[in-house]
Structure formats: C-alpha cells, structure tokens
Amino acid sequence: MNDTTKVNTADPPAISGLTVPLDITQIQAILPHRYPFLLIDRVVEVERMKRIVALKNVTINEPFFVGHFPSFPIMPGVLIVEAMAQTGGVLLLTEVEDRTNKLIVFTGIEKARFRRPVVPGDQLRIEIDVLNWRPAASRIMVRMDGRAFVNGKLVCDGTVTAQMVSMNRGGITSESPTETKE
Fold it and tell me: What is the pLDDT of residues 115-167, one digit of tens each?
C-alpha cells in the first residue's frame, strides 16, 4: 500500500495498520474528543503529513441546534472551523508515538469565510492541506489550509494553526490533580 491509503504503520497499537476509511471508533483511538464535541465521523483520505479528508454528518440531533436557531437550525461556523481543526488533529496525531500524553491545541484561524449555511441533513466534506509542518523540541506546530464543502459547494474556508503539546507540561495532566505539600 502507498502513503495515500495507509496511516503510519510505525504507530503504537491503538492505530497501527489502520487503512482508510477510518470509522468513528478508529477516530476515537486517535483524538481525545468525545460526544458532543467530536465533530468528524469518518476519514476518507490520508496522505501522511500532507493532506486529509474527513466527513461530518450533520443531523437535527446535534445539541447545538436546540439554541442555534430553533426555528431555523444552522450549524455554528465556529464548529465547522473546529471540525477542520479536529481533522487536522487526526493527521498530526497519527505521526507521534506517545499520543496518549499529547494534546492538540488550536492556536489560530486566519481568513475564515462562511459562504453558505450548513443545516441538518447536510454532509460536510472537510479537506485539509498542510501548509507548514514544523517539529520544535517536544512539540509539533502545523499550519493548515482548510475547506468544507456540502454537495461540492464551498461552505467554509480558512487557515488553521495548531500545535501539539505534552499534557504533563505546564500543569496540564491527564490524571486527577494531587494534593500539593507546602
């Protein structure tokens, strides 16, 4: 298999040897996000460190539709951008060994444009192309061009920046807080 159809096979057992498409269970083995904030359902293309394509099925059961807007449900643009960041996060996290102690933090969005409303029944196709991938010390920083489409029509685009950090650094930890001794 070539790099466009296989996720990094040197990865630890949680995602070792996975081929696209990635289903929701495989995505959850990579991303720490869970309902109601996991915003991608399937990964359909991966080109290591370069490109990824994911799908999000938008349903009326989404919790944000209760208040945005009850008589005219529209997916919030900020959640479309978050879905782009999560898609890029899958690409980034498949390249690191100790991903259980890592966290992807969203560091910026540039030139975000919302071109059409996304409504229940739509399927978002999220395409991410890496513009810059920079390993630095214990972190990786990435800048990505993101586009979201519904039925082939562009609904959102922008440039997303993120970095991977250790959850043990700076007080962020995956374990329960412990008492401090003075």
Answer: 999 999 999 999 999 999 988 766 788 999 999 999 999 999 999 999 988 87
Cα 52 from Cα 85, distance rounded (Å): 11
Global model pTM greater than 0.85: no
Contact 145, 113 (CB under 8 A): no
Q: What is the CATH number of domain 24-171?
A: 3.10.129.10
Contact of 145 with 128, CB cutoff 8 Å = yes
DSSP assignment string, 34-85: -TTS----EEEEEETTTEEEEEEE--TT-GGGGTS-TTS----HHHHHHHHH
- Inter-residue contact 31 to 89 (CB < 8 Å): yes
> 3 pLDDT band (50/70/90 cuts)?
very low
d(CA 128, CA 158): 10
Active site residues: 68
Contacts of 89 (CB under 8 A, 6+ apart): 30, 31, 104, 162
CB 109 within 8 Å of CB 160: yes
CA angle (160, 84, 150) in 5-degree steps: 130
